[in-house]
Design goal:
3-stranded parallel beta sheet; 39% helix; mainly alpha; Rossmann fold; 211 residues; 3 strands
Length: 211
């Protein structure tokens, strides 16, 4: 989060987690606390792994926890790693951080910290509409052979094309116009060439991603 350009460590951790079977969604540099909270909510992530190298952890991490509450996921576990002074660790834990990791933390410890919070998907109680929708998608994804509840959409539009052809831009424009006209719609994005979710194979147990 923040204006921190140090990303080699977090990319290494992300790759090692993926190699260990964890589905990692890497948000990229210069995220805000709110953008991270919204992304984690919409992806129905099992936890947030926050890399802090800019000495702004006592400001940005509490804001991240607050934003998780505002977007309807106050239960979202947050782990923090990076250059964190020992005297600040308890302050972060008291604020609601689940674990704090320093330079030199072992891979198995980090992987276990993610696996410990992974639970079978169940409906969220008292969550926001967006958080509840994300959880319902996760539950449907976990049981693709089950019967879908609800009515079949009146119209289904499929869009495909080569990378960079402008599919996302077109979909965003169409969705924006539909919303402007007061219509309701759902957008489902799937990449059959993805090494994580190739056709016919469910995503690894861990963090589930849509789109």
């Amino acid at each position: 989060m923040g204006l921190d350009g140090h990303d080699r460590g977090v990319k290494l951790i992300a790759r090692l987690l993926r190699d260990s079977g964890v589905h990692v969604i890497y948000s990229g540099l210069w995220q805000t606390p709110r953008s991270l909270a919204i992304g984690a909510r919409d992806e129905d992530a099992d936890c947030i792994a926050c890399s802090m190298m800019s000495n702004s952890h006592l400001v940005l991490v509490p804001r991240l926890l607050e934003e998780c509450r505002k977007v309807g996921r106050p239960d979202m576990p947050v782990n923090v790693g990076g250059i964190i002074p020992q005297e600040d660790v308890q302050t972060l834990l008291d604020a609601g951080v689940r674990r704090v990791y320093h330079t030199g933390a072992g891979l198995e410890t980090i992987v276990d910290s993610v696996r410990e919070v992974v639970k079978p998907h169940a409906p969220l109680q008292g969550a926001s509409a967006a958080a509840s929708l994300a959880r319902r998608i996760s539950m449907a994804h976990a049981k693709p052979s089950g019967k879908a509840q609800g009515r079949r959409p009146r119209r289904v539009v499929g869009i495909t094309g080569a990378p960079g052809a402008g599919k996302s831009t077109l979909v965003a424009s169409m969705a924006g116009e539909a919303v402007r006209r007061g219509r309701r719609l759902a957008v489902i994005a799937f990449d059959p060439m993805s090494p994580i979710t190739p056709a016919g194979r469910p995503a690894p147990r861990g963090l589930q991603r849509r789109g």
